[in-house]
Amino acid sequence: MPGNKSELKSLRATKYTSSLRRSGGIDRLRGSSYRAGLRLLDLLDRTRGREHRFLPPRRYRRFIGNGDFLKVGREITAYMRDELGMGPSHDVLDAGCGAGRVAIPLTDVLTEGSYLGFDIVPHAIEWCSSTIGARHPNFRFEHVDIRQEIYNPEGRLSASDVRFPAEDSSFDIAALVGLISHLMPEEMDNYLAESARVLRAGGRCFATAYLVDDKVAENISRGNTAFSFTHDHGNYFVHSKEEPTYAIAYRLEHIQAVAARYDLRMCQEPRLGTWGVSTRRPASMDLLVLERA
Ligand SMILES: C[S@@+](CC[C@H](N)C(=O)[O-])C[C@H]1O[C@@H](n2cnc3c(N)ncnc32)[C@H](O)[C@@H]1O
Predict the structure, then answer these.
(1) Residue 143 beta carbon below 6 angstroms from any ligand 1 atom
(2) 28 has a pLDDT exceeding 60
(3) pLDDT exceeds 70 at position 265
(4) Engineered SS bond to 112: which of 9, 89, 180, 255, CB 3.0-4.6 Å?
């Protein structure tokens, strides 16, 4: 997620969201100088030789969040391979695939299976299709015009009843990486229902999230977490009252209860990140694995 309010401003300055269109001249000026700076840095990258053939330009990487884009993608992929048993012939759905952070390292793993990534930001999908998809025909990317206050405020569809662009029982893994933290409760409910629908029996839903148990709730109340999440709504906590979908943390038992309604069962203890035990940033999220009955 974008780390703080200034990250949110820079997210807007990348012209990823149409919020910029609503903003005034000064913001627009700031946005264009910011974009020019990113282009300059990309040019320097090119002259020095890029690290990876699929590394997206900075303006496409920036809205994903902090950290080393390629390194984080490799770590997530390694977790999916080692902990979820993902193999070369698996079919993987990546909901909210962004600029391909997970898809890029997956191209080395899914040599016989398939990958479908969808996202609500058209430029990111165009970029992924024309680079990753062009070289790997078993990798497909789809734009779905879902409304989201930060990433796509003028989208046509609602996340609380949208259907994933996939057939029933057609995937082994449904990944929701950096996504649940942007979904309001009824949207999160629908995304778990849809994950369950597209998974085969025994398939796994893999999600990163900000998970709250009693200990973390206490840390939140004492200001001992990386994001403040001070607005407590019972089952969920929001970081910014004005823009709730900027970052949402969920009670673990709430996610488990919703998942159970769709025959998704937590099959291993979540791997806890650092965000809930320390104020240090950058902070990592928690990892959750749910198995489809
Ligand atoms: C923090 S980024 C993570 C992107 C990618 N999963 C990754 O790990 O690099 C969150 C992504 O979720 C997408 N997104 C936000 N709301 C969404 C929704 N309701 N449905 C699908 N994608 C959504 C955003 O456009 C953005 O690409």
Answers:
(1) no
(2) no
(3) yes
(4) 89
What's the chain's length in residues? 293
| Helix pair 252-261, 185-198: axis angle to 10 deg | 50
What is the dihedral angle through the alpha carbons of 32, 95, 68, 10, rounded to the nearest 10 degrees?
20
SS3 state of residue 35 = helix
Q: pLDDT band for position 19 (50/70/90)?
A: very low
Least confident of 54-58, 74-78, 276-280: 54-58
pLDDT band, residue 236 (cuts 50/70/90): very high
The 3-state DSSP class for residue 30 equals helix
Q: Do the Cβ atoms of 146 and 164 come closer than 8 Å?
A: no
* Residue nearest ligand 1's atom 22 by CA: 96
pLDDT given for residue 21 in this prediction: 37
User: What one-character DSSP code corresponds to residue 271?
Assistant: B
Domain ranges, ordered by start, for the chain: 5-58, 62-292
| Ligand 1 atom 13 nearest Cα | 96
Tell me the three state secondary structure of residue 100: coil
Give the separation between CA 116 and CA 139, rounded to whole angstroms.
Answer: 6
Tell whether ligand 1 has an atom less than 6 A from the beta carbon of residue 148: yes
- Strands 171-176 and 199-212 come out as parallel
Which tokens sit at 254? 């709430």
What is the position in ligand 1's atom list of the atom closest to the CA of 187?
19
Task: Using the mean position of ligand 1's atoms as its centre, give its distance from the Cα of residue 188 in Å.
Answer: 13
Query: How far does the centroid of ligand 1 lie from the alpha carbon of residue 48, in Å?
Result: 30
- In short, whether 11's Cβ falls inside 6 Å of ligand 1 is no
Q: What pLDDT shows up at residue 145?
A: 98
- Give the percent of the chain with pLDDT over 90: 76
